[in-house]
Amino acid sequence: MALLNYSVAIDVLEADSGADFESERSSVAANRPLERHRHRGTNAVCGPRSVWQPYDRPGSVSKTGILLGFSLFLLLPIAGMLYFTFRSATGGFTVDHWLALLDASGFSFMTLSEGLLNSLMLVAVTLAIELMLVIPAFVLISVRFPRLNRAMGVIMLLPIAIPAIILVVGLAPALAFFADIVGPNTWTLALAYGILALPFVYTTISSDLRGLDCRTLAQAAESLGAGWLRTLTDILLPCIRRSIISSMLITTAIVLGEFTIASLLNRTTLQTALISISKTDVYLSVIVTLIVLLCTLVTLFIMATGNRPSRKES
Q: What is the spatial distance between Cα 45 and Cα 37, in angstroms, rounded to a whole number?
């Protein structure tokens, strides 16, 4: 009996020592740094397998299919519009509709030129308001008053939640006040367009500011003797230049595509001019819409390629 108890004790001790050895070996393997080695000219890491396995990634066929489907979804309406502009009323094809765009003596050209110039002026004024007031205010709140970020996120959503007709009713007295001072100019619509663009500008800028330790950068600049204006222009704004360019592009698209406020306030912009032209010449309206759409797509492509980080930055 004593011999049996002795053998059982020996087995227990061996099991405990084996378990301790296995746990020690696993802890050493877990704490061992990942070893890098070169394999066929690339850096590989020896370690646990990644959660994202190669068979989970889309292959070349899937990528091509997705790209082709998106291209068809985007280009088919444009091709239909282009085909429509060359159609003749008799059933053939003609370029007279495109030549009518250059007729400076027609009513359509005068209305279109007035609306386009007014829209470009509104774009310039709205971007100036955004660059000089809105974006510096957002950066100031993130640096000096970070506790207000949550409240600002809620307030900035109001222009999307409030219908445009209610915004017009609320902004009409303010615009009338400015009209009494500076006259009934179209550029006063930039105040309303700036409010419409606030949610998109704030979302774009705040997403970039969250990944930037702007408070530390501002404190470091101030410790070196820089004032707030120099800290803003030389340090903080260059760090978020990509989001600034994106917000400017979004603002431009909003101003060029807005119709409700301009129509209710009886102002001539690009969209209201297109509606007026479509009542007399639907072909010319489609041509101008096609040109604006293509210019927007080209601008988006240029911005996307220009904002791509280089290898040195990455």
A: 7
How far is it, in rounded angstroms, from Cα 136 to Cα 232?
8
Verify that 107 and 150 share a domain, yes or no: yes
Helix (H) / strand (E) element for 234: namely none
Pairing of strands 35-39, 42-46: antiparallel
- The CATH code of the domain that includes 188 is 1.10.3720.10
d(CA 312, CA 314): 6
Residue among 131, 136, 125, 148 nearest 230 (CA): 136
**Residue 293: which domain range?**
96-306
Prediction pTM value: 0.71
Type and span of the H or E element at 148: none
Q: pLDDT tens-digit profile of 41-53?
A: 444 444 445 555 5
R_g of the chain, CA atoms, integer Å: 31
Distance (Å, whole) CA 81 – CA 75:
10
Phi, psi angle pair for 299, to nearest 5°: -65, -40
- Longest Cα–Cα distance of the chain, Å, equals 120
- 185 and 210 in a single domain? The answer is yes
Say whether both 134 and 213 belong to one domain: yes
313: helix, coil or strand? coil
For 255-284, how does the pLDDT look when each residue is reduced to its tens digit (9 = 90+)? 988 888 888 888 889 888 888 888 888 888
